[in-house]
Amino acid sequence: MRHLKIIAALFIGLMGLLAFLNNLFNIMSAQSFVAAVISAPEQPYYKIIGPVFSAGWQGWLGLGVIMAGELTAGVLGFVGAAKLFGARSAVSTEFQNAKMLAIAGGAIGMFVWYGFFIVLGEAYFNMWQTEIGLGSVNGAFRYGTVCAVLMFFISMRDD
Known about the structure:
Blueprint: H1 2-25, H2 27-39, H3 56-86, H4 92-97, H5 100-124, H6 131-155
Helix pairs in contact: 1-3, 1-5, 1-6, 2-3, 3-5, 5-6
C-alpha cells in the first residue's frame, strides 16, 4: 500500500507540474483567458454581482496566482513522494509523518482548481455561461477531484 501512496503523490506532482508547464508554454492564451473571465465582457444570463477586473495587469496577476498554485502543488507532490519513498520501510508513525508534503500538495491542487476555477470562476464570474468557461470549469472539477481523492488516499493510515 505504501508504494501506491508514493505513486499517488507522484501523480499529484505530475498534475501540478503539467498544468503549470501548459500555462507557461501557452502564456499569452492563458493570460487572455484569465483576463477575459475576470473582466466579464459578456454575461448572457446572470450579471456579476460585484466588481470585475479589466486592467491587463490584473489578468497577469490572476494567471500568476493560478500558476504559482499549480507549481506549488506539483513541487510538493514530488517532494512528498521523495519523502514517502525514503520512509517506505520505516515504522508506521515515521511513514505517517512523511506524508505531510504530499498531502499539502494535494490540498493546494484541490484549492487551486476548486477554489479559483469553481468558487471564483464559476460561482462569482459565471464562467458556466460560456462554452470556453464551462470547459475550464469541467477540467478544474476533474483536476480538483483527482487531487482530493489522491490526498485522502495518501492520508489514510497504513496500520
